[in-house]
Every structure is written in C-alpha cells, then in structure tokens.
Amino acid sequence: MAEPSWIIHITLLSIILLSHPPIQTAQTLNTTTYTFGPFYRDSPDFDKFRFLGDAGGMSAGALQITQDSRNSAEYLVNKSGRVMFTERFRLYNPKKTRPTTTNTSTMLVASFNTTFDINIYRTTGTVPGEGIAFIIAPDLSKPPLASYGGYLGLTNSTTDGDPSNQIIAIELDTGKQSYDPVRGDHVGLDINSVVSNATASLADFNIEIAPVNATNHTVWINYDGISRRLFVYMAKQFAPKPTKPLLVADVDLSKHVNQYSHFGFAASTGNDYELNCVLGWNLTVEVLPEERGLSGWRLSVVVVASAVVVGVVVGVGFMLLKKRRLGREDMQYILGKLKSLPGMPREFRFVELKRATNNFDGKNKLGEGGFGIVYKGVLEKEKVEVAVKKFSREKLKGKDDFLAELTIINRLRHKHLVRLVGWCHKNGMLLLVYDFMPNGSLDAHLYGEGDPLPWSRRYTVLADVASALTYLHDEYDQRVLHRDLKASNILLDSHFNARLGDFGLARALDNEKTSYMEAEGCFAGTPGYIAPECFHTQKATCESDVFGFGAVILEVVCGRRPYDVFPGGFKYLADWVWTLYREGRILEAVDKKLEGEYSAEDAERLLLLGLACSHPIAAERPKTQAIAQIIYRSVPPPAVPRIKPAFIWPMVGSLSIDSGSYCSGTTTTRRSSSSNCVWPTIEGQAGLGEISMV
Ligand SMILES: *[C@@H]1O[C@H](CO)[C@@H](O)[C@H](O)[C@H]1NC(C)=O
Ligand SMILES: *[C@@H]1O[C@H](CO)[C@@H](O)[C@H](O)[C@H]1NC(C)=O
Ligand SMILES: *[C@@H]1O[C@H](CO)[C@@H](O)[C@H](O)[C@H]1NC(C)=O
Ligand SMILES: *[C@@H]1O[C@H](CO)[C@@H](O)[C@H](O)[C@H]1NC(C)=O
Ligand SMILES: *[C@@H]1O[C@H](CO)[C@@H](O)[C@H](O)[C@H]1NC(C)=O
Ligand SMILES: *[C@@H]1O[C@H](CO)[C@@H](O)[C@H](O)[C@H]1NC(C)=O
Ligand SMILES: *[C@@H]1O[C@H](CO)[C@@H](O)[C@H](O)[C@H]1NC(C)=O
Ligand SMILES: *[C@@H]1O[C@H](CO)[C@@H](O)[C@H](O)[C@H]1NC(C)=O
Ligand SMILES: *[C@@H]1O[C@H](CO)[C@@H](O)[C@H](O)[C@H]1NC(C)=O
C-alpha cells in the first residue's frame, strides 16, 4: 500500500515547525538553585550523587572525592575519583539566541554560579598531592583508567587534550607538574586537558590549599553566559567573598562541553596524597527553555500536526493488524515499539532467524530461562554467530517480558553486559538476538565436565560482573535492577571475559511502581539466590541484587551450588561457609578442584565479601560500589561477624526499600561518626572496618 502523499506533507510540515528556531527568547531566564551539605550517608541528598572510581562516598559531613581510608597509605596513593551530581543541565542551545547590550545577539548559553567549601587535608610531615577540581562533564562515567597523579581524575596520558572528553574543570592543584607554569599551589582552567589554559598562583593571594594546620576554604566560581567569562575566587572558610578574583578566563562553554552536562568534582592522589573533601556545595544555574516550550500558535500547530501523524500511523497499523488478524496485545506491542523507536537495534525477518537456527533445531538449543528458549544461530549473510531467544507463547506475560527486556537492554551499553543485536516479531512470536558467547555460561564451567576454571579466571569473572552491576545500579542514567543474578546468567566470551545476560526479569527502578511485576513478587528465582526479605516485601531492590551476587561469589570460590547439601546438614552454601569462618577454617570452603592453586589472600577476600553480601539484613550488605572496590583490591575485605546474624522482620532501621533504594555508597555505613577529612586519630580497622556488621 502506497502512503497517501498528504501523510508525507504533514510529516514534513511538523518537522519544519519543530526545527525552525524561534525568533527570540525572554531576556531574563529563571534559575534553579541547589544547596548541598553537610553530607551524611543517610541524607536525602545521597541519591543525587554518583560516587565514581576511587571516590569515598559521604561521611562525617563531607563528600570524599578520593577516599578517606585510614588503614594505610596503600589505599591512599595513586587514586582518582569523581563525585557527580546526577542532575543534567542544559548549558546552551544553538537554536536560540539572546540579545546583548552590544546589539548583537548571541547563542543562548547558561550562566551559573557555584560556591563550595573544601577541606584538603594532609598528614603531618607529608607533602600533599595531587589536587581537586570542579568539573563539567558530559556524563556520569568513571574517571578514566590511570587518571591518578597529575591527571586529577580528569584525563589520562591517552585521553589528555582530546576534545571528545568534553570536560571543563577548575583545578585546585597542590602537586606541581612539569607542565604547571606557576610555583606551588595554583588554580587553573582546564579544557579537556590537565595542561591548564589559564592559571594563577595562589601564593600571590596568600592561600595554601593544604597547609600544615588544617584549614577549610571556600571557592566561588561565577560564569557569565553572555560574556562567556569565568571568575574564580577563594578565601578561608567563613571569610567574605573577596572582591578580586584569583582567575578570570574567557571560555565559551558551547564550544567545549556537551549541550547537556553534569556538574561535580574530581580529584586524585599520586605518590603524595591528601584527603580531597567537599564540605558544602551551592549551585545556581540558569534554566534554558526546552524546545517543547514553544509558545502560541506554533505550539498548537505542532501538536495538531503531530497528533495527525501519530493518528495516521496508528490507523495504518490498525489496518495492517486487522488484515493479519492479530490480537489486541499485538497492537499494544506495536505501540510500545513505536514509542521506543529511536535507537532501536536491527529488526530481523523471521525467516532469517529461522534459517540461522536451522528451524529452531533442538540441537542448537543453548539454554532455557527468563521466559524463553535460547538457540545458537549463524546469520547467513554476515556469517556471524548469534544467540536467539525465542519467547514462549504459553507464558501469558511473554509479551511484557519481551518489551521489558527489549527496552532495558537496548539502552544499556557496557562491555560486561551481553549485547543485543536485534529483534523480531512475527504472528505474536517474539525473538531477541544477542551476541553469541562462545564459552557459554559460568555454571557450565563450574560444574561441567571440562577442566576446572582456573583461579585467575574466576577472579576476573567476578570483577567483570561487579563492574556490570555497578553500571546497572549506579552509573547508568536510570537505576536498573537485574533481579535474576545467578551463575547461569553470566556468560563468557572467547577471552573468558564475563558478560551479564538475561534481562528477562530486569527492571528500571523508576518504572517499577507501575510494573505488573509488582504483583508477581520477587522473582521466580532459584533457591539460594533470593534474599530473605524478598519473601516478605515481594520487591526486588539493589540489596536483593547484591544478595544474589553474594551467592554467585561464594559459588565461584567454592565450586558448589548455593542451594545443595553441605557437610553438617546445611542446605545453603552461605550457612556452611559461615560456620567454617566461625571455626577459623574458611579456606576449607575453597573449591577442591583447584588443587590449592589459588591466592589465599584473594580467596579469603572473596569469601568474606560473599558472606557480607549474604547478610540476612539487607541494610547491612555492602553497597554495589563497595563490592567492586573490594574485588579490585582497592579497599580491604569487610569485617564479617563470626556468627551469622538472625534475619529480623520487620526490617530494622531505615531501609532503602522504603526510601526508594540506593545502591551507591562505599565502605562506610551511616553509623560512621568519626570525623573524616580530619586525619584519623584511631589507626587500624577503624576506618574501613565501618563496613562491618557487628
Ligand atoms: C520562570 O518561572 C515562572 C514561575 O515558575 C514561570 O511562570 C515563568 O514562565 C518562567 N520564566 C521563564 C522565562 O522560563
Ligand atoms: C604510583 O604511580 C607511580 C607512577 O605511575 C608509580 O611510579 C608508583 O609506583 C605508584 N605507586 C604505587 C604505590 O602504586
Ligand atoms: C543597535 O542597533 C540599532 C539599529 O541597528 C542602532 O540604531 C543602535 O545605535 C545600536 N546600538 C548599539 C548600542 O550599538
Ligand atoms: C552570579 O553571581 C553574579 C554576581 O554575584 C550575579 O550578578 C549573577 O546574576 C549570578 N548569576 C546567576 C546565574 O545566579
Ligand atoms: C550555601 O547557601 C546557604 C544558604 O544561602 C548558606 O548558608 C551556605 O553557607 C552556602 N554554602 C556554601 C558552601 O556556600
Ligand atoms: C585512558 O583511559 C581510557 C578510557 O578509560 C583507556 O581506554 C586507556 O587505556 C587509558 N590509558 C591509559 C594509558 O591507561
Ligand atoms: C587551551 O584551549 C584550547 C581549546 O580552545 C586548546 O586547543 C589548547 O590546547 C588549550 N591549552 C593551552 C595550554 O592553551
Ligand atoms: C599551627 O597551629 C599551631 C597551634 O595552633 C600553632 O602553634 C602553629 O604556629 C601553627 N602553624 C602554622 C604553620 O601556622
Ligand atoms: C573544617 O570543616 C569541618 C567540617 O565542617 C570541621 O569539622 C573542621 O573543624 C573544620 N576545620 C577547621 C580548621 O575549621
């Protein structure tokens, strides 16, 4: 059927109307203001920040841009972290202008003002390093690898100077590098590089960022979007704002940063270290009108035109559906598809997949689960191996699960998540196509016939999954719960890199309230992977994902399934390991198939972490980021009570289940009351031991 030409005309009309820049905008823009701090673990602001890389979380009133770890210098040197405000700001709009006093109108660029208090602390007798920066970054991603030392958590030797960084930073540098043009402490404007575009020596202003006697400072940064000029001021905390700026620099945000960017802080340590803390932060940003804020007739015409277009598309869809005699559910499906159209992966023709899998031959079956059967296939044209998941029709919920999986996984991008290649829909039959993972699933390697998975592989598999989980919980724009973490959902590529797969049960947390899954309970999961509170709350949380991952950790180290028969009559692996731990022989839990070929230190780290994640009380489990840091060996393993605590219901304390759930966080719990950012008086376990659950 040829489309009537008037459809095309209306479509073009609406495109023209939508893309034509309005002639002028209001001269005064509204602003939005945020006031943060002091920062505590249980403050309602906690959720508004992402703690990335070696950032240490919120504790004792401060944001720790690099962690404050008291145990030893080992955890303080060569670190880089970022703490980013999750809110995204539109910083300019190329389609809009504002008139200026000089009679020329310029592109609309947002002005902003920010003030923050910092405490950069060094231990007596040491040299401080390296520095802290206020940054504008395009996303909530981690500081790059090896961005410690002089790179301030901004760039590394590969990415420094690359315009695609889209980073602007105001650095407060305590470590002198060869490229730093001024003596001692200085402030600098950095554009995509730690080699500053403009600098000023703080000595000229009688300021030492990290003096021997701890001093808090206040920094003011004002940016004027009209003159495109930046002003930086600094003084001791509680002193009035100086009249003379330290640094004045011309910088056009619209030339360097992403149109939508995030504000936050980055910091690093090198061989010399310091605590990099922010004690309070105020931010005021001009609000640029969004395109949909079109006014008057233009808006109504666009609405009418768009409505007509949508109506026509839906109508055509209806006719097609009627012809093929498909059900109402399929209609919903089509609409869902229309909604999520941008960025959709490839749509396959059913025959392509049929041919690829040799008509879904049982011999090509890779596995079953998450509401469907998975087949191996080879795409004829591309000669590429894929995994094709066919949703079973008998399951009533198949379509919703398909949509959920499609919409979530389609938007996720992470090297440790299985990649979605495409999808297919035919006669109510739904299929998803994934990258094929030549080394199959983790459980096959733990329990299969083949050679046992060597220790180093086991360790990296867990590190990979921890990084995927951190991404889902804390780094992706929207918080995503996997809800079905288990060894059979962890797949291994040709290099034995692990990828988390099967998003059949995954949910974006924001959507969960309206999700039909609510009524369905936690998950039709496998015993041993389900957190005890799930039986009561019927609700998945970050903590229940952590519990599932804890079961996987123990499984990988012990080579035993989480729910089985264990010596002493235990039914759960965690209970057995906990007993061995109490009796001081935890390493006896390590997989015998390894024949002693493993690092005892790492095995103990993982076993303790696995137990901590298996804590019966959800709030006591380590947070996702802390888990990754422990596996990366950047913080020591958690202290675990000798005797497994009892499961208590109703849950004690304020639990994230009620408060909308946070997963981020670090090695400190809200019990931490000792003062960070002031060098620890108690050495030893006091600092990181705070993860303990005693
Ligand atoms: C500023 O905010 C007020 C109140 O929310 C609103 O009425 C007004 O339209 C806004 N102005 C601009 C330019 O966005
Ligand atoms: C820190 O990094 C520097 C430079 O890369 C290196 O020389 C030094 O050994 C590192 N220190 C530690 C403790 O890793
Ligand atoms: C602005 O432009 C108008 C006409 O284009 C001119 O008369 C006026 O002098 C200009 N004002 C300034 C401040 O340049
Ligand atoms: C920032 O501060 C300056 C000076 O105090 C003020 O003139 C300006 O309006 C402020 N801008 C914003 C966006 O708050
Ligand atoms: C932020 O603003 C509040 C209210 O004006 C003020 O009390 C506080 O000192 C400010 N904090 C900083 C870090 O400027
Ligand atoms: C710099 O960071 C990028 C991105 O994280 C990474 O791919 C690259 O390997 C890093 N370079 C170095 C020298 O570590
Ligand atoms: C300053 O900024 C520009 C980008 O506008 C960049 O190309 C240049 O290399 C930067 N560095 C220095 C030291 O000026
Ligand atoms: C640091 O503080 C102590 C005690 O207040 C004082 O005696 C000393 O002079 C101060 N040192 C410096 C370098 O300001
Ligand atoms: C710096 O700020 C922290 C947190 O507000 C406070 O505990 C500490 O006493 C301050 N230090 C100084 C030297 O004022």
TrEMBL record:
<dbReference type="InterPro" id="IPR013320">
    <property type="entry name" value="ConA-like_dom_sf"/>
</dbReference>
<keyword id="KW-0675">Receptor</keyword>
<dbReference type="InterPro" id="IPR000719">
    <property type="entry name" value="Prot_kinase_dom"/>
</dbReference>
<feature type="domain" description="Protein kinase">
    <location>
        <begin position="360"/>
        <end position="618"/>
    </location>
</feature>
<dbReference type="InterPro" id="IPR017441">
    <property type="entry name" value="Protein_kinase_ATP_BS"/>
</dbReference>
<dbReference type="Pfam" id="PF07714">
    <property type="entry name" value="PK_Tyr_Ser-Thr"/>
</dbReference>
<dbReference type="GO" id="GO:0005524">
    <property type="term" value="F:ATP binding"/>
</dbReference>
<protein>
    <submittedName>
        <fullName>L-type lectin-domain containing receptor kinase S.5</fullName>
    </submittedName>
</protein>
<dbReference type="InterPro" id="IPR011009">
    <property type="entry name" value="Kinase-like_dom_sf"/>
</dbReference>
<keyword id="KW-0067">ATP-binding</keyword>
<keyword id="KW-0472">Membrane</keyword>
<dbReference type="GO" id="GO:0006952">
    <property type="term" value="P:defense response"/>
</dbReference>
<dbReference type="InterPro" id="IPR001245">
    <property type="entry name" value="Ser-Thr/Tyr_kinase_cat_dom"/>
</dbReference>
<dbReference type="InterPro" id="IPR008271">
    <property type="entry name" value="Ser/Thr_kinase_AS"/>
</dbReference>
<dbReference type="GO" id="GO:0016020">
    <property type="term" value="C:membrane"/>
</dbReference>
<feature type="transmembrane region" description="Helical">
    <location>
        <begin position="297"/>
        <end position="321"/>
    </location>
</feature>
<keyword id="KW-0812">Transmembrane</keyword>
<dbReference type="InterPro" id="IPR001220">
    <property type="entry name" value="Legume_lectin_dom"/>
</dbReference>
<feature type="binding site">
    <location>
        <position position="390"/>
    </location>
    <ligand>
        <name>ATP</name>
    </ligand>
</feature>
<keyword id="KW-0723">Serine/threonine-protein kinase</keyword>
<comment type="similarity">
    <text>In the C-terminal section; belongs to the protein kinase superfamily. Ser/Thr protein kinase family.</text>
</comment>
<keyword id="KW-0732">Signal</keyword>
<dbReference type="GO" id="GO:0030246">
    <property type="term" value="F:carbohydrate binding"/>
</dbReference>
<keyword id="KW-0418">Kinase</keyword>
<keyword id="KW-0547">Nucleotide-binding</keyword>
<dbReference type="InterPro" id="IPR050528">
    <property type="entry name" value="L-type_Lectin-RKs"/>
</dbReference>
<comment type="similarity">
    <text>In the N-terminal section; belongs to the leguminous lectin family.</text>
</comment>
<feature type="signal peptide">
    <location>
        <begin position="1"/>
        <end position="26"/>
    </location>
</feature>
<keyword id="KW-1133">Transmembrane helix</keyword>
<keyword id="KW-0808">Transferase</keyword>
<dbReference type="GO" id="GO:0051707">
    <property type="term" value="P:response to other organism"/>
</dbReference>
<keyword id="KW-0430">Lectin</keyword>
<dbReference type="Pfam" id="PF00139">
    <property type="entry name" value="Lectin_legB"/>
</dbReference>
<dbReference type="GO" id="GO:0004674">
    <property type="term" value="F:protein serine/threonine kinase activity"/>
</dbReference>
